[in-house]
Structure formats: C-alpha cells, structure tokens
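Good morning,

Both structures are done.
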Amino acid sequence: MASTKQARLDAIKQQIIDDQVTPELAKMATQLVFGDGNPEAELVFIGEAPGKNEDLQGLPFVGAAGKFLNDMLEMIGLRRKDVYITNIVKYRPPNNRDPLPEEKQAFMPYLESQLEVIQPVLTVTLGRHSLNCFMPELSISACHGQPKRLHGRVYLPLFHPAAALYNGAMRQTLIDDFALIPIIIKKIQSS
C-alpha cells in the first residue's frame, strides 16, 4: 500500500514539473522541494515555502526551524519518518520573501492532491500562510492549538517553528500546542 501511495505522490511531483507551476520561481530555485516522510502518515505538517537549506537539500524543514520541529516531534514520541512534511509553495521564493498569493494559489491543487493520497488523520498548518490557504478568515494568534474541521479533514493551526526561534515566549506556546497533537489524534480516531 505504501509503495502505491509513494508512486501516486511521485506522480504529483512530476505533474508540478510537467505543468511548469510558477516558472519564474522554479528558475530561481535550485530544485523542487516536494515533501518528505511517510506516505501512510496519520500526521501531515504544512509549512509555507522552502528556505535556503531546503532548496539546497531538496527536503522541507531541514534548517534551524526543522531541527526545532524534529525536537518537538521527539517530545511527542514521533520521528520525521513517522510523519509527512511539506510546504504550500514547492520552490524557494528569492531571498526568503513571503510567497505571493498567486504562488500559493498555483500550488494548492497539488497540495490538495498530496493530502488526498496520504489521507492524514490530522493536518497541522505551520504559520499564518499555511493556515490562511485553508481558512483565510482565521488569525493564527487567535486560533493556534485549536483543531478545526473543514471539508471532512481536521486541521490544527500552529505557529511556525521559525517564529519560535526569534521569540522565546512563542517557543513555549508552540511546545504546549504541539503536546496536544497525540490527544487530538486519539480523539479523532475514537469519534
């Protein structure tokens, strides 16, 4: 089953290249950063876009924010290979600028397809860009750590791990919110 899902994900990745999604971003990036992890994962994390380290390695969340994400996963008894990690935008925006609305929009159908293949129990949005692609009316500061149901999926909005690197108070908030993940998954599975 896992290999079938992986094959379907590989096909989506190839589709992005074939469809020439955001050609100007693609030109400036080293490579496409599609996603990483277990195609059978119960938990999917969605960030906004690859940064410099991600662009070079071709994997999401491998810089300082990724290390913090790995640490938080360990705190709840998981490792990277247990979950699936991706971004909305799959190419690094130049100079780490925020992804533009049209860039996010261009990648949304592919992200939806990824979620369709993986069928996670819980989808965690990391940061406001990720949250607002699914629920534009919500503010991350008002709803972080509170699960939301939308179109048959459950989302958990969390602050982006990068934000916690610059703000000590936010670090603890993120750790506290992260600790809710296993509880939320159990609740969803038992309902």
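Second structure follows.
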Amino acid sequence: MVRPLSPIEQDALVAALKQTLQSDLTDAMRRRDELTTATLRMALTAITNEEVSGASARELSDEEVVQVLGREAKKRREAAEAYDAAGRPELAERERAEGRVLDAYLPAQLSDAELDALVDQAVAEVRAAGQDGPRAMGATMKLLTPRVAGRAEGSRVAAAVRTALGS
C-alpha cells in the first residue's frame, strides 16, 4: 500500500519547477549570463504575481507554473513578430533568445502528426456522442484542451480542429 504524502512532501513536489528556476537563476548569475538571468528573473516575477493574485496568496503547482511560462514564451514570440514588423531585428532577436530560454522549461511541443492524431481521436469521440456542426467545434476543443495542455498553442489546436471538422 502506498502511504499518503506528508504536507512537507506535497509542498516539495508542488514547488519542484519553481525551485529549478530559482536554482538555475543562481547558476546564471554566477556565470554572469545576462540573458538567462534577466529572463529567469522575469519568469519568476510572473510566477510570483500569479501566486499573489486573487483573494489569497497560494503556491502554484508545476502545471500552473508551466502555464505561466507558456504565456510568457508566447509574449516573447508575439513581441519578436512586432519588432520584425517594425524593422527592429536586434530587439526581435533578443525576444527570440528569451523565448528559447523559457522553452527549455516547457514540455516538448506536439508535432503536426501527433496533434492531428489527437484531433482525429477527439473528433471521433464527439461525433460518436452525436454532436456535429458548430457545436462539435466547442465540444472537441473542450476534450482536447487538457490533452494538449502546454504542448500546443490554442490557435494551432483550433485550426487543426476546424480542418478535421471541415468547417
């Protein structure tokens, strides 16, 4: 029989990714790696802001930390595109470099084939439940969102679902 985890052991599991980020920040500071130091400080600040937002402060789970890091990485990609459009390639490259630092802490992204397989499976489940048409899009997204959490952007998933549904 598996014994339940003590509160201390649970806290250690919950804070594993955040502790890794803090440890890596210390290492980056020792190496005088300005890019990694600045990026990890920004990420830890975003995590802390998320922890203290709401009615009461709380510790984020690893899944929630991954969500925060995913949002920050997405901001970096969008900023790089904006800088490219504005003719500022040096700033765009800095944003991409920050994104690469964050990507190291995120789960591997799904390939197109893997995403298509998950979409096909979800569409089959939704159609087997008797839903079709516009409602099938929402039902399929509801099924897929937890399955691809952190491994594919929502816009990419939605495009794949639209293609699979033929709408």
